[in-house]
Amino acid sequence: MANFTIVIHGGAGTIVKEDMTPGLEKAYLDGLHDALNVSYAVLEQGGTAVNAVKAAVVALEDNILFNAGRGSVFTKKGVQEMDAAIMDGSDLSAGAVAGVRNVRNPIELATEVMRNSNHVFLSGKGANDFAIKQGVKLEPDEYFFSQFRYDQWKAIRDSDNYSLDHTHHQLEELMRDKKFGTVGAVAFDAYGNLAAATSTGGMTNKKYGRIGDSPMIGGGTYANNRTCAISCTGHGEMFIRAVAAYDVSCLVEYKGLSLQEAMDVVVNDKLLKMEGEGGMIGVDAKGNPALVFNSAGMYRGVKNSGGLNEVSIYK
User: Which domain of life is it from (predicted)?
Assistant: First the structure.
């Protein structure tokens, strides 16, 4: 029987049970289950790894609880600027967008870039123009408004602070309570192909058109059939400097480490030494999943053809 695997994440950081109401916890777990099930169905029906990761990320972007797509946080200017990337491990093709506005599903746009643009990375207005040309669905500003995100932004918008994603409203708590709101997925399909996808609304109150690791091929997103597929979530600046996703692939390819070992080295040694908090999900060239994080929690899930099916939040 063909073997296939999907792994997803919805962000990492200071996510602890005492901050969570039973209702909110259930909503997050339901959201993860929905994304897992829709993407697993793609694989089960003989779909590709690329289509599976795209389906998972679309489901998470459409869920207002996660900092991507509809649930994206507010920038310093009080708008949403979104980043996303997707990569096909079978031929190393990739597509990425940064600083896009009003695009309902940035991962759909990243996929269009990969398949139909002759480029890898588009940004800002140009990326939005390409979205219009390709018929990618747009939404008005109101679609992206959530009171929860607006209150987060209001608490720090008059300061020079930025915040990664969080639930509390007091400034001192904001700085202590870090959450890295990114969503992502990696998949291994029945044909032996790997893919990775990542999408984010970035940091609350971010300035200057800041871009994190999520849309950067090799930083927050990477897939190569010879090694693994990786999607990261964390303090983007450190993940960029560590070239985190690609480094895992290199450790597998050149040092012969297992995926789990390679991810442990990057997340729990290399990134920790740089004070890089967060985590990553991965799947190797045989379909083995791995989920590693050095923060208090990571919204995550994994499902495969061998009967594994679980979602979790805390350590």
Answer: Bacteria
